[in-house]
Design a protein that fits this description.
By secondary structure, the protein is an alpha/beta fold. 46% of the residues lie in helices and 17% in strands. Strands 3-4-5-2-1-6 form a six-stranded mixed β-sheet. Strands 8-9-7-10-11-12 form a six-stranded mixed β-sheet, sandwiched between helices. The two termini are 17 Å apart.
């Protein structure tokens, strides 16, 4: 089957790129241009015409990539035309009438590249992450994974396990032969070394996933202290309703932002207070849950808040920042009890000290989540497979080599398989489908 899709962004643009890949690509190009196929990887000016009427659709650039030296590993082409909706739809209509051609599904070009061995699964995921990146730190992480450092690490660990497995298999195939003591000793030492390396990879505070998905920040505090106003200020738009009526926010409002280069998901929550209203009580419960699961908590009070102590006792920690809003009112906010929490004094109304608050938030994230070069895990899928691998290596160590040799070998096989799953040595279609469905159409 030959597939096609718009690979440039939707909407009006100067140029639109339509990608075509599959066995009928040559046929498609001849039908659209009425000319021979151009030289590989050479931009050629072409008139694109309706195959049935020879009517001119547009004039643009044609790029031809013969297999296997193409992104997908199949015959592939790119048509660069003017980015109007009418031009794109006219070309789509012509392509849809060619036998064996259909519109591509999300991520299908990259999935074909993976299936043809052009890229591994980690690189495929990093391509998706790069396309979706909104901050510099997300772009940098995606590029690091694309460079192959993570793939090399997991493949190296897998090769070490395969070498151990070959010794085990030799014992099973030749049961009358005893493995030398030094091999058994080295095997245990090697397993222990591999476990230590995997433990180091897993002990990363989930920074890779947080960068990819966004650091979670929860704004909590009493009613009417400016939580929604702060969210609107950070979002630079009216995200939440602001009112002098206490208890206006009842549900959790979440916004994804680029906060001084950090990808964050900020949650505005219901004001925490005693309430008999069932809906408000549910909102308060959600607020407490968001605070518990957040990477950073902004506890907002105002100078006249007398009952702030319980917020600090419940949530005051290294992941909390105390913020005192409404200092423009001139109330006393310098008590020793407040000072010991090193509060940030702001006025959202007068936009006072808000830059200082942003810098403190950024510094807090930097201090709590050390973002280093050796980030290998960016998705929960990677973590699950590593944890399973570690589990089977532990089971392997607990087996008696003499009595449970076959069972020990099975644990080693499974550990090796879980490591292979990370880079794409898998044959489960459901796993591949769940990954490539996250891509945009045309990639």
């Amino acid at each position: 089957m030959t597939i096609y899709a718009l690979s440039s962004g939707p909407g009006l643009s100067g140029i639109a790129v339509i990608r075509i890949s599959g066995p009928n690509t040559k046929k498609v190009l001849k039908n659209l241009t009425f000319l021979p196929i151009p030289s590989p990887k050479v931009a050629s000016l072409r008139k694109f015409k309706n195959p049935e009427t020879s009517e001119l659709i547009d004039e643009g650039i044609l790029l031809w990539f013969p297999r296997p030296e193409s992104y997908t590993g199949e015959d592939m082409a790119e048509i660069h035309v003017h980015g109007s909706k009418a031009v794109i739809e006219a070309i789509y209509l012509c392509l849809s009438k060619i036998e064996g051609c259909r519109l591509a599904e999300p991520g299908e070009f990259t999935k074909i590249a993976f299936e043809n061995g052009k890229i591994n699964l980690l690189k495929a995921e990093s391509i998706s992450d790069l396309i979706a990146s909104e901050t510099e730190i997300q772009r940098q992480q995606a590029i690091k994974i694309m460079s192959g450092k993570s793939s090399d690490k997991f493949n190296f660990l897998r090769e070490r396990l395969l070498k151990l497995l070959s010794n085990i298999e030799a014992k099973i195939d030749f049961p009358d032969e005893d493995l030398p003591n030094n091999i058994l000793k080295n095997m245990r030492s090697e397993i222990k070394s591999i476990k230590i390396e995997i433990d180091k990879i897993l002990n990363d505070q989930k920074v890779g996933e947080k960068i990819r998905e966004g650091f979670k920040i929860a704004i909590i505090g009493p009613t009417n202290v400016g939580k929604s106003s702060l969210l609107n200020y950070l979002s630079k738009r009216e995200v939440a309703i602001v009112s002098e009526i206490a208890g206006t926010t009842r549900d959790v409002i979440e916004v994804s932002l680029n906060l001084n280069g950090f990808p964050v998901v900020i949650s505005d929550t219901a004001g925490i207070r005693e309430s008999k209203d069932e809906i408000e009580k549910k909102g308060i419960k959600l607020a407490l849950e968001k605070a518990e699961n957040a990477d950073l908590i902004l506890i907002i009070i105002e100078p006249k808040s007398v009952d702030f102590a319980r917020f600090l006792s419940d949530f005051g920690s290294d992941k909390s920042i105390l913020v005192i809003n409404k200092i423009d009112l001139g109330s006393d906010y310098t008590s020793d009890e407040i000072k010991k929490y090193d509060p940030v004094l702001i006025s959202i109304k007068d936009e006072k000290n808000l830059d200082k608050l942003l810098n403190i938030i950024k510094q807090n994230l930097k201090n709590r989540f050390f973002i280093h070069e050796n980030i290998f895990i960016t998705r929960q899928r990677h973590r699950n497979n590593l944890e399973k691998c570690l589990e089977h290596l532990t089971n392997f160590e607990e087996k008696n080599f003499i009595e449970d040799f076959d069972k020990a070998a099975e644990d080693l096989r499974l550990a090796t398989r879980y490591l292979g799953n990370i880079v794409g040595k898998v044959d489960v279609e459901e796993v591949l489908g769940s990954i490539f469905n996250d891509f945009c159409i045309g990639k």
